[in-house]
Fold these 2 entries.
Entry 1:
Amino acid sequence: MSNKSISLGGLIEGAIMAALAMALSYIPHDIGGLGIQIQWGILPLVLVAERRGWKIGVVSGVIWGVLDAMLRGGSNLLNPVQIIMEYPVAFGVLGLAGLVAQPLAQALKNRQLATAIVYIFIGGFIGTLSKYFFHFVAGVFYWGSYAPKGWNVWLFSLYVNGISGVLGLVYAAVVLAILVSIAPQLFSVSDNNRHIEAM
């Protein structure tokens, strides 16, 4: 694998996955009444990041975050700092799942399916942990007034964002593990077009 610049094909693929993530956001995803949710769009974002690398993943996440703010933000847009933190930044860092793109591609090349699944989980963990860290911070400073009476705002934000993050990780990791088992080519880019970025 070479350390080439981001390709136009990678950017187009990333934009398509961001649009797919945005479309999936319209499927109901709230669980209970406290703000816990599964964001279905995590799946295509983690897939493109683990396929193309973290730079394409971050760009794709930023696109999704901006689209989500513009199309669905509404009353969730409180002030410029909160908007930037919870949309382009939080969605963008989901693309850090692509930090495992090179070892994942190598495991698939060597037909090491179990190792590939481990990398898929690690990448998903890095991405979702990063995303929900920013939602957690925003929850403390901007959404604390929604905490039920008697709840500490730090614990409330950790509860809501922690459960949302774990649900998102499990959903993405299970679906991607199934996909890599039945269609490993979804995680590979042909050698002519491979532009996975090294750190």
Entry 2:
Amino acid sequence: MVRDVMADYLPKQEPRKYLYDPVADYPSRGGKMMRPSLCIATARAFGAEPERAVRAAAAIEMLHNSLLIHDDIEDESEERRGKPTLHAMHGIPIALNAGDMLAMLSIRPLLENVYDASPWLSIPIIQDMERMARESAEGQALELGWRRDPDQRPTRDDYLIMVLKKTCWLAAIYPCRLGAMLGKRSKITNDAFIRFGFFFGAAFQIQDDVLNLNGGLTYGKESCGDLWEAKWTLMLIDVAQSLTEAERPRFEAYLRNSRETRTEEDVAWVLDLMNRIGAIENAQMFARGLAGAALGEFSTLLSDLPDSRDKRFIRDLITWTFRRDH
């Protein structure tokens, strides 16, 4: 349903080669569709028909894809969903413009959905969208800043704040809050949505960081791309805190090098450090603890709702996080 609706908002007009074909590229590649599915499931769990939420869900997926285009440029990534990144195919200027256009196009289905569902909900929904966009940009800024300034040494708490902002608001908090508003036809004031979205979104992100190290054909992104980019994950934070004096100079050089000057030997060395200290297993254990907290918040958040396929779907997403391979 979401893919069909998205297609209605992706123009097939000129200039196609330099704008609208690149705009439609990432949405056409598929993906997990977790964010729009979570929005629709929450709306249905609170009593809405799926048609009431599908355009809002499409707006979320379109915005997510626009940010992926920008993220790939900022991260200098080479692969997305099993294919070359948009900027690798078309160059940075065209990809950047396509990402901007896709972000603007994502507003249209949301506004039309809000008008059809409950016009008086428009302000709270747009306010939530504005906060989600602001939190996402702030989280991205933290991650980019840590990579630009190699003297920075983020802690676990710093990492979790970054993930709350960059990942959790778009991946879980906003889809759930938006779905609940459409289902209940009222403004959401319950902070349990934020707590649930944080615990679930952080578990999802940490598992994503782990999968990035495992790689493989099904992953859909560059294997060990986070290490090539020297991204601060829980695993890299653990490595930085456990270095010997002999290892420290090489690690400092690894952080200061650009992506282009990092070597396969550098990446393999850091990965070996992670394996040696058990950083990957520790991250997985931490993520499972967050998932347990998410299940607790889920029980509180939806305890008054009758059992339904959608309620079970939301609950099972939490454990699906650890069953997925990409």
